User: What shape does this take?
Amino acid sequence: MTTTAARPAIDQEHWQQRLDELAAKHSVPGAALAVLRVGEDDDGDELVEAATGVLNKSTGVEVTPDSVFQIGSISKVWTATLVMQLVDEGKLDLDAPLVDVLPDLRLQDADVARRVTMRHLLTHTSGIDGDVFTDTGRGDDVLERYVAALVDAPQNHPLGATFSYCNSGFSLAGRVIEVVTGKTWDAVLRERIIQPLGLTHTSTLPEEAILHRVAIGHITPDPEQESHPVTTWVLPRSTGPAGLINATARDVTAFARMHLRDGAAADGTAVLSAASTAAMQAHQTDLPDKHSLGDSWGLGWIRFDWHGERLYGHDGSTFGQNAYLRVLPGQDGSGGLAVALVTNGGHTADLFNDLYRELFAELADVRIADQLEPPAQAPDVDLARYVGTYERSSITTEVFERDGGLVARVIPTGAIAEASGATTEELELHPVEQGLFAVRPPGYETWMAATFYALPDGAEYLHFGVRANPRKA
Assistant: This one.
């Protein structure tokens, strides 16, 4: 390991201790952390790793820095990178209709099928229902079959009208990659990103992951009970481009390093052009909810405003596993900072907030964005206007009044709800201002936002969980 002369070395023992302490505090069974500080030259990089806890409470196998976790939706940035490589090569146009590549594309809204573009997919603005997890098997034709089944997926909002997090769109993007390259998404990822970056512990398939120390997710259906291992390890293969990459925290920071280095691998190989690297980080669309995650989106990347400092990154969630990546571009003699945290259950958002607050303050003098909290004195808002049922694939949310306040009953539905063990929960909505409420699940310290809003055509939505949930008539 080499370090930049201008800065003291990152204190590995300190961050190991903090990871141990905070993971225990927030009931996280196991976690691994990688902190990569990129120097101004190729010899100036500094990598510090820490690991804590167990991979599986049933076996007691310890987490090490070489342990592999599911990084979930951080995979979307990898898929977006593949898309931008094809843009660099002149094989794809972000603003051309997808039917130019997929002439047989059929969606519930025929007009959307004719007009939807890759830019819509990478910015989550297509309006295709984002949580369609159709299991189309294990064969190499899974994405072809998945896209064919999208004809039955609801259109949650008009094309380009708002932002709604869309897993479906990235499986569709993965299919476009397959058609353009003539190879499976898994093979293209391996050839174009995993191998050029020298990522020795990154894969997409269970039979590849099992060659390493692999984390098992843990869930807590009842807040009063301890977490236990999940009974379903992985999402369907058809969700690959949206969230099926397995990796160490170290490999995730190596991927981030390429983006900090204008698309270059550690050996200087050009993986992505500098122009496309910058385009991915640039502003594309705003979020209706600027409190729960970032304030805007790039091409694949989430954009964060931390008290005037612009960061980018992504989070990921699968069956009982959560991953976090934040990237701070270079400043004051540094090539930038990338921090990856991978976890397998517990109150991971609380662990993330506590740990990253300390890390970025100490290593970069950057303060994490303030958390949304309900005011001490509740404002006077019209609660009745928000009462109703809001529904999308995989989730139904019933909002109703009780004891002078609003409650959201969140009901998981469909095959994924059964596989994950998710159960119905009721959440109090604490008013912050008209249309904005703070929500906190039992046992958590971190608040989320519930935002009620309407489109210009009058259609009403609840933006919750980074998704636009349309109100049922």
Summary: The first strand starts at residue 30 and ends at 38. The chain has 13 helices and 20 strands.
